């Protein structure tokens, strides 16, 4: 033994039990398979390509070997995290405040020196004595029992103890709680492939097997590493390679084992997804930022999505990216701004941005196309323009000659026209004949557009010298034509009104000062308001004995003594004049037309004096009335009686009236600013006429009403 330890060239023989032979056989087969597969992978130059469906058993076997340390299995997922979280790592370095998934606190249980599960398991495998799986579990409970991510049966709550056995322990990590059984941990962790087996394989005649056991490994005298240490070192080497590169994680999931189309094996796909850890990768991806890009590249690609950054943004790239994020409506939690990069958390946000960019490309393409077409068309236009200029040179020369000819002819015509204009008042000759004809034609056209529309109109445009005789004839003919058209268009009512107007002109023109105000409005035969119409109609039927009512109007009667005003209704029938009380509608007077006379003044007032003969004993003297439409009332009296002498117009400043017993009274007529009828201090009736404009306005209002 002593010489063997010093010389290391002596080989001892030892008998093994049957169980140890089984372990050696399994270790040899696993080690041979592993070396053969590694050799095959390196020989093919495809280190990272593990065929998913073909090597599931190998992957499952590898996972079984390290079942004692699930956090080392997590190292495989760290490879995915290194790819998917490369942006998160960069964001952490730049911003230092990213909230991403950090499994270090969990994997520290396995990788921590002298205290982790790996160190405890290696120590238990190499210590002298008879180590067992339960002694390993006891050591872990003593060293890791207080760790927040480690749960053992002895220190767990009653509820948790019901879900796990005494030979099990539980780890709490990102994917949930995982329970492990310690049976077989130490056996699977030990490298039971003895050196003599390695030496025998290295001297084998099979070239493939010999290449799997190189001589360098055989010459090494170091203690063989345990399985978990080998796997940890292999993953660490792989992580160092990945961290210095930009790897892409590509997984191919086969829908079936038959390599045919249109067949989808759900169980097979679920099995691949489960053992490839894709769901865990998705959880890792959700927790961090799946996309990162420098500000310059991001702005260069997506600057067309904002008016403020398109086509060129001259400020810092970071500010331009911030403008794009605000324009695209990024939520606060969807992205982060680092020192040199933007970090986007969700793929949906990036996809929406990319979709907007793809949609915008058509708009940009249309702009580029428009600019290119414009440039091409401008080149064509310049070519055509140069040709047109040449053609225009000859055309303008031809047109200039034609213009010269036309101007010469126009100058001759103008000279001829000016000579005719100078001699336009002379007898027709060769020069002015056309001018005289043109003057006549223009005068007739102008006259046709300005003819009077009514025979009362006296407007007529002046005529030139050669048209004056024709103008007089046409004027008389047009007046006759308008008068005839007016006569033909008259109905019975209008003809009667015109007859009354003619009678009014014959009686009152130049005899009554307010005659001009009565010319315009038509004469009305009823001036009584509608609320009195029923009572007046009843009186006409019952009291007038079949006499026809020709005119009615409200009047004011003044007493013979005291001149107190009283409201009355003046009714004119074919035989008499009736005066009714304005309140009771009772008859106050009936005066036959063949026995009375009417007297009015030539001023603007409405005073009418009805002179009553003495034989009418019941009427005590003359009646004094104030009639608003005095001329209208007189015209109806003259029309009914057919006697113009029945109405007398006096032009004196006073008017006398008869009282009883031969006495007389006086009515004084004056002019003032306001119309009024009052009793003067002398005892006479004083009538004050208003100015013409005021009286005219009142008469116009009452006449049209």
UniProtKB/TrEMBL annotation:
Annotated GO CC locations: cytoplasm; microvillus; myosin complex; plasma membrane
Any one GO MF annotation of this record: actin filament binding
Start and end residues of each TH1 domain: 512-691
Gene3D superfamilies the UniProt entry points to: 1.10.10.820, 1.20.5.4820, 1.20.58.530, Kinesin motor domain, Myosin VI head, motor domain, U50 subdomain
Span list, region Actin-binding: 235-257
Keyword ATP-binding among UniProt keywords: yes
PROSITE patterns documented for this protein: MYOSIN_MOTOR (PS51456), TH1 (PS51757)
GO annotation, biological process: actin filament organization; actin filament-based movement; endocytosis
Entry keywords, A to Z: Actin-binding, ATP-binding, Motor protein, Myosin, Nucleotide-binding
Domain (Myosin motor): residue spans on this chain: 1-358
Organism domain of life: Eukaryota
The UniProt record lists the keyword ATP-binding: yes
InterPro entries, A to Z: Kinesin_motor_dom_sf, Myosin_head_motor_dom-like, Myosin_TH1, P-loop_NTPase
Pfam families (UniProt xref): Myosin_head (PF00063), Myosin_TH1 (PF06017)
Family: Belongs to the TRAFAC class myosin-kinesin ATPase superfamily. Myosin family.
Protein known as: Myosin motor domain-containing protein
Organism encoding this protein: Anopheles dirus
């Amino acid at each position: 033994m002593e010489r063997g330890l010093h010389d290391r060239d002596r080989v001892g023989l030892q008998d093994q039990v049957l169980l140890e032979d089984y372990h050696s056989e399994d270790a040899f087969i696993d080690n041979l398979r592993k070396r053969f597969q590694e050799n095959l992978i390196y020989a093919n130059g495809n280190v990272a390509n593990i065929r998913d469906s073909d090597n599931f058993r190998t992957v499952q076997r590898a996972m079984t070997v390290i079942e004692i340390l699930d956090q080392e299995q997590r190292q495989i997922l760290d490879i995915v995290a290194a790819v998917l979280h490369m942006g998160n790592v960069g964001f952490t370095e730049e911003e230092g405040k990213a909230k991403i998934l950090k499994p270090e606190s969990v994997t520290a249980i396995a990788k921590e020196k002298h205290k982790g599960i790996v160190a405890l398991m290696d120590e238990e495998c190499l210590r002298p004595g008879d180590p067992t799986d339960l002694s390993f579990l006891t050591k872990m409970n003593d060293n890791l029992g207080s760790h927040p991510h480690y749960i053992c049966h002895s220190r767990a709550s009653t509820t948790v103890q019901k879900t796990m056995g005494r030979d099990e322990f539980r780890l709490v990590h990102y994917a949930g709680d995982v329970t492990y059984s310690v049976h077989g941990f130490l056996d699977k962790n030990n490298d039971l492939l003895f050196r003599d087996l390695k030496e025998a394989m290295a001297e084998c005649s099979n070239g493939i097997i010999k290449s799997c056991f190189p001589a360098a490994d055989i010459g090494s005298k170091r203690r063989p590493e345990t399985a978990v240490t080998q796997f940890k070192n292999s993953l660490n080497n792989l992580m160092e390679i990945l961290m210095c590169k930009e790897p892409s994680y590509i997984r191919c999931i086969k829908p079936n084992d038959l390599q045919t189309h249109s067949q989808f094996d759900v169980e097979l796909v679920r099995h691949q997804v489960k053992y490839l850890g894709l769901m865990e990768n998705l959880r890792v991806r959700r927790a961090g930022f799946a996309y990162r890009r420098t500000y310059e590249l991001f702005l260069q690609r997506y600057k067309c999505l904002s008016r403020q950054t398109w086509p060129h943004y001259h400020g810092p790239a970071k500010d331009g990216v911030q403008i794009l994020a605000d324009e695209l409506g990024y939520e606060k939690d969807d992205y982060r701004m680092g020192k040199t990069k933007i970090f986007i958390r969700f793929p949906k946000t990036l996809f929406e941005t990319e979709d907007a960019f793809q949609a915008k490309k058509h708009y940009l393409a249309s702009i580029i196309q428009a600019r290119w077409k414009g440039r091409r068309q401008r080149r064509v236009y310049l070519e055509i323009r140069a040709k047109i200029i040449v053609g225009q040179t000859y055309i303008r020369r031809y047109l200039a000659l034609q213009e010269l000819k036309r101007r010469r002819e126009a100058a001759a015509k103008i000279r001829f026209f000016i000579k005719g204009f100078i001699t336009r008042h002379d007898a027709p000759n060769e020069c002015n004949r056309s001018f005289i004809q043109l003057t006549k034609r223009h005068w007739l056209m102008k006259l046709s557009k300005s003819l009077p529309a009514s025979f009362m109109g006296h407007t007529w445009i002046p005529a030139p010298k050669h048209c004056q005789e024709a103008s007089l004839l046409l004027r008389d003919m047009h007046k006759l034509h308008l008068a005839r058209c007016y006569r033909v268009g008259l109905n019975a009512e209008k003809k009667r009104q015109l007859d009354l107007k003619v009678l009014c002109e014959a009686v009152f023109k130049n005899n009554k000062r307010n005659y001009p105000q009565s010319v315009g409005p038509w004469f009305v035969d009823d001036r009584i308001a509608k609320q009195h119409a029923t009572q007046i109609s009843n009186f006409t039927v019952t009291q007038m004995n079949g006499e026809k009512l020709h005119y009615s109007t409200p009047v004011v009667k003044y007493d013979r003594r005291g001149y107190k005003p009283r409201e009355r209704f003046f009714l004119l029938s074919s035989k008499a004049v009736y005066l009714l009380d304005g309140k009771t509608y009772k008859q106050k007077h009936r005066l036959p037309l063949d026995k009375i006379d009417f007297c009015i003044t030539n001023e603007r007032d409405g005073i009418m004096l009805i002179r009553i003969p003495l034989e009418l004993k019941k009427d005590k003297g003359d009646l004094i009335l104030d009639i608003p439409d005095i001329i209208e009332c007189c015209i109806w009296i003259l029309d009914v009686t057919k006697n113009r002498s029945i109405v007398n117009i006096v032009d004196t400043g006073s008017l006398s009236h008869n009282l009883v017993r031969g006495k007389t009274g006086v009515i004084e007529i004056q002019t003032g600013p306001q119309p009024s009828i009052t009793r003067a201090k002398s005892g006479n009736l004083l009538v004050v006429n208003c100015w013409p404009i005021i009286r005219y306005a009142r008469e116009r209002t009452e006449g049209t009403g």
